[in-house]
Amino acid sequence: MRIVNYIMILSIFILASCNQAKKQNSDFTKAAKTAEIDTEELVAMLDTIWRTEQEPIRIRDSLGKVYGYE
What is the tens place of the pLDDT at every residue in 4-18? Predict the structure, then answer.
């Protein structure tokens, strides 16, 4: 009788761990799909940062060429 109880408990733990693994795999695929969307947003954000950093430098350099640096 005890062996049957141990086998039942063991089988319940095995089933629970299998279900959890399937859930983690589906979460991973969802994260991968959103990562593709996030990369587009990331590229747009980096372009914006690049422009906001480079425009003042370009203006400074062009004014330096016109009026001199010192």
Answer: 877 878 777 777 776
What is the residue whose two structure tokens read 């370009």? Answer: 58
Span 41-70, mean pLDDT?
90
d(CA 57, CA 70): 16
Look up the pTM and report it.
0.41
The alpha-carbon radius of gyration of the chain (Å, integer) is 30
Number of other CB atoms surrounding residue 28 within 10 Å: 10
Residue bearing the bigger pLDDT, 11 or 59: 59
What's the CA gap between 33 and 70, in Å, rounded? 53
CA angle 16, 18, 24 (to 5 degrees): 105
Give the end-to-end CA distance of the chain in Å, rounded to a whole number: 95
